[in-house]
Structures are given as structure tokens and as C-alpha cells.
């Protein structure tokens, strides 16, 4: 029986996929965790933990290195909420252009003005005028699952679209409309864009990427959209640029005390993926990936361990070894099995950066003795008997 704990509300459509060998529990020593944006950094990881499933894209709320060192495989669900975010980004583009938020707030103040309302509306509306997006230039930073969708829709709305992503995947390149222009540098994109939208993960290399120096490269009155993570923008520099009018509007899905106090900021309470469709897509994908790992040892969409698929085990036994990506691991593992007279029926060894994974089907029953031999190999961080 696998014990699974949820740290956020996960859509029932996903949780209901779990079969009888799974139990949802609220205790510490679990085999798997499912979560959305819950911050796990201060949490102690139980020794029982094998996998973490992030029903969503961003994994900056999960201590990835700590998980890797304990052999905990962290999954996310690439693309599963991208359409939900794309739709809100398009709303954000319009909110950044026309003063819809200010206008709606003002219209609400006209309550109880009776027959005067239509006259007051006509007299007051010019305070809330704003430009159209058609014909303007949108700069999309990060052309992954979300960035590509945003770029393509913006193009179909009549915008000129520039994209910047030095690490673009082949799939994203295929999916991008041919009329999206490629920027060779961030500065080139920033110099031409009337609107800038951020669709990169928050990692060391992207932290504070929109700072004073980059804002200086931008056009006057630029409008910036951040539906990725607060930490991508240097907030003091942004506050200065908003106060001076260099940046006309900042729309963020990640408000905090600082941004809430800045003028010309539109704060949305992290609603990008909060649609029933995205919530279900993410939950279903996260649960399926978690179950395939727990039941079969297969890895799909992990951010810290390599992809690996040996299907369902038809041999007598299957053993999974999470280990460091260093020399002699395969020979040490296979020697340990051979020394116990265990014959290997099938095996895969894959690596991803510093970490590797070996999945082995064997023709005998796996005993505790064998597991202990494998655990004793230097560099091995977890051994799991799948069957
Ligand atoms: N507001 C919300 O509710 C949501 C926010 N997000 C945020 O959006 C981010 C992007 O999500 P996806 O598009 O699904 O991820 P993704 O992984 O498909 O795309 C990210 C893209 O950023 C690119 N990239 C990485 N470093 C870069 C750099 N320095 N400069 C330019 N491009 C760079 C990558 O090559 C990749 O193509 C997530 O990491 C998350 O932080 C994601 C989903 C929901
Ligand atoms: O998937 C992501 O990166 C998101 O930001 C969505 O977060 P959420 O699942 O809505 O808490």
C-alpha cells in the first residue's frame, strides 16, 4: 500500500485514478506527495518519501537538490496548465492597455446616482482611454509551453511578436507561428517591445532578470506582464520605473506587499492555472506519472531524475536504484547482483546532470540481503523493490 499526502487541493479527477494499493493520508511518513504551490523548503523530507508530484509547471517551491540527494524523484506536468495561463495573459495584455480596472472601479462609484448614471458615464469615460494592442509589438521572453501559446494568439490579434529563448525546445520551435520574429538577445527584444511578457522559470539565472539596466533598454511607457514568478523582476527598480512613468503598467499574477503599494500595478492573485480545465489536466497528469513511478519504476517528466520507461514488469522481479551520475555505478550494481547469482533479464541506465537511475528486471526473487548490498554501494541514494 502506497501512502500519498496532498499539500494542496488536487482535483478529484486525478485523485480518483488511484487504485486500491494507494491510500490518501495526513501523516508524515508517506511514500508520495502531491502538491501545487505549497512551499516545501522548510519541510523535513521523511525517509519513506519516494516521489513528489507537482500538479503544475513551476518547481521553485520544492527543494530539488535535497530531493535528489535523498533519491526522491520530483515530477511536474509540463504544458498541462499552459492554456489557462495563456488566456489570463491575453486578459492581462488588455488590462495593461485600456484602464479597464480603473474604469470598473469608477463605474461602481456611480451606484445610486439614478437617471444621472448614463450622463456621468459619458462625461467620465475619457479618463480611462487607452491604446489598442493591434499593430503594437509584444516581446515574449521564454518560448516554452506558455510563451508559445501567448505569442501565437498575440499574433492572431494583430500584434507584431518578438520571441527570445536561447534554450527553445524543438517542440516549441515547431509549434511557434512562422511569423514570430526571433530576437538574438534580450536587449534587442526589450528595445523594440511596447509590451513585454515573461514566461521563464524562476531559477538562479533568471532571478531579477528585469532590473534597472534592462528597464533602461526598454521603450518609454512600456507595459510589463509577469505571469511567471515575482522574483523575476527586481521590485525596487520596477517601483522607480513605474513612479517615473518609464514603465506605464505592470500586471502581475504574483502580488506581494511591495507591488500592492506601487502605482500603475495590476495585481491578480495567482489565478493563471486556476481553471477547472487546468486543475484537472495537472492533477490527472501528476497522478498518472506518480503511479507509473510507484507501480513500475518508470519516470516521465521528472525535473531531477532522467526519463526511463521499461513498461510493466513481466520478469520475476524489478529493482530501481537512484544514484549519483559517477563512473562504475553500472558495473558495481550488476556485480552486486551477479555475486548473489541473480541473472538480469533487462535493464536501463539513464542520467540527468548529477543524477542517474538504473532499473533492472531480474529472474529471481529480490531479497533484503540483495537490497542491502546495493544500498551499500557508494553513490547509491535509494533502492526500491518494485516487484
Ligand atoms: N501564473 C501561473 O499560474 C503559472 C505560472 N507559471 C510560470 O510560468 C513559467 C513557464 O511555464 P511553462 O511555459 O509551462 O514552462 P516551460 O518549461 O515550458 O517554458 C519555459 C521556457 O523558458 C525558457 N528559458 C529558460 N531560461 C531562459 C532565459 N534565461 N531566457 C529566456 N528563456 C529562458 C526555456 O527554454 C523554456 O522554453 C513556469 O516556470 C512558472 O514559473 C506556470 C504555470 C502557471
Ligand atoms: O504551475 C505553476 O507554475 C503555477 O504557478 C500554478 O500554480 P498553482 O498550481 O495554481 O498553485
TrEMBL record:
MF terms (GO), sorted A to Z: NAD binding; phosphoglycerate dehydrogenase activity
Coiled coil regions, renumbered to chain: none
Reactions listed under catalytic activity: (2R)-3-phosphoglycerate + NAD(+) = 3-phosphooxypyruvate + NADH + H(+); (R)-2-hydroxyglutarate + NAD(+) = 2-oxoglutarate + NADH + H(+)
Domain (ACT) ranges: 318-387
Signal peptide range in chain numbering: none
Pathway in which the depicted protein is active: Amino-acid biosynthesis; L-serine biosynthesis; L-serine from 3-phospho-D-glycerate: step 1/3
Keywords annotated in UniProt: NAD, Oxidoreductase
Enzyme class: oxidoreductase
EC number from the UniProt entry: 1.1.1.399, 1.1.1.95
CDD domains xref list: ACT_3PGDH, PGDH_like_3
Protein family membership: Belongs to the D-isomer specific 2-hydroxyacid dehydrogenase family.
Functional description taken from the UniProt entry: Catalyzes the reversible oxidation of 3-phospho-D-glycerate to 3-phosphonooxypyruvate, the first step of the phosphorylated L-serine biosynthesis pathway. Also catalyzes the reversible oxidation of 2-hydroxyglutarate to 2-oxoglutarate.
Protein name in UniProt: D-3-phosphoglycerate dehydrogenase
Organism annotation: Vallitalea pronyensis
Amino acid at each position: 500500500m502506497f501512502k500519498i499526502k496532498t499539500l494542496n487541493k488536487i482535483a478529484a479527477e486525478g485523485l480518483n485514478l488511484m487504485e486500491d494499493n494507494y491510500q490518501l493520508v495526513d501523516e508524515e511518513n508517506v511514500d508520495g506527495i502531491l502538491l501545487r504551490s505549497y512551499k516545501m523548503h522548510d519541510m523535513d523530507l521523511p525517509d519513506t518519501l519516494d516521489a513528489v508530484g507537482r500538479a503544475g509547471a513551476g518547481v521553485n517551491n520544492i527543494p530539488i537538490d535535497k530531493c535528489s540527494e535523498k533519491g526522491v524523484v520530483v515530477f511536474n506536468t509540463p504544458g498541462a496548465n499552459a492554456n489557462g495561463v495563456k488566456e489570463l495573459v491575453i486578459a492581462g495584455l488588455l488590462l495593461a492597455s485600456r484602464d479597464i480596472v480603473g474604469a470598473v472601479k469608477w463605474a461602481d462609484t456611480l451606484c445610486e446616482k439614478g437617471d444621472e448614471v448614463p450622463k456621468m458615464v459619458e462625461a467620465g469615460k475619457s479618463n480611462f482611454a487607452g491604446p489598442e494592442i493591434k499593430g503594437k509589438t509584444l516581446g515574449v521572453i521564454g518560448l516554452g509551453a506558455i510563451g508559445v501559446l501567448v505569442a501565437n494568439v498575440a499574433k492572431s490579434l494583430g500584434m507584431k511578436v518578438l520571441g527570445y529563448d536561447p534554450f527553445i525546445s524543438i517542440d516549441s520551435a515547431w509549434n511557434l507561428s512562422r511569423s514570430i520574429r526571433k530576437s538574438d538577445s534580450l536587449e534587442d527584444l526589450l528595445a523594440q517591445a511596447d509590451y513585454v511578457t515573461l514566461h521563464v522559470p524562476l531559477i538562479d539565472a533568471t532571478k531579477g532578470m528585469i532590473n534597472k539596466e534592462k528597464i533602461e533598454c526598454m521603450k518609454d511607457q512600456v507595459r510589463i506582464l509577469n505571469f511567471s514568478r515575482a522574483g523575476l523582476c527586481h521590485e525596487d527598480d520596477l517601483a522607480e520605473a513605474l513612479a517615473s512613468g518609464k514603465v506605464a503598467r505592470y500586471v502581475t499574477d504574483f502580488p506581494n506587499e511591495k507591488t500592492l503599494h506601487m502605482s500603475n500595478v495590476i495585481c491578480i492573485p495567482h489565478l493563471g492555472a486556476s481553471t477547472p480545465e487546468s486543475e484537472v489536466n495537472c492533477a490527472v497528469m501528476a497522478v498518472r506519472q506518480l503511479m507509473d513511478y510507484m507501480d513500475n519504476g518508470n519516470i516521465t517528466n521528472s525535473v531531477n531524475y532522467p526519463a526511463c520507461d521499461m513498461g510493466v514488469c513481466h520478469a520475476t522481479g524489478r529493482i530501481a536504484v537512484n544514484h549519483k551520475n559517477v563512473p562504475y555505478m553500472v558495473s558495481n550494481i550488476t556485480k552486486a547482483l551477479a555475486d548473489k547469482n541473480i541473472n538480469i533479464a533487462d535493464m536501463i541506465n539513464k542520467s540527468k546532470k548529477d543524477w542517474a537511475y538504473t532499473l533492472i528486471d531480474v529472474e529471481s526473487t529480490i531479497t533484503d540481503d540483495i537490497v542491502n548490498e546495493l544500498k551499500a554501494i557508494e553513490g547509491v541514494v535509494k533502492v526500491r523493490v518494485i516487484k
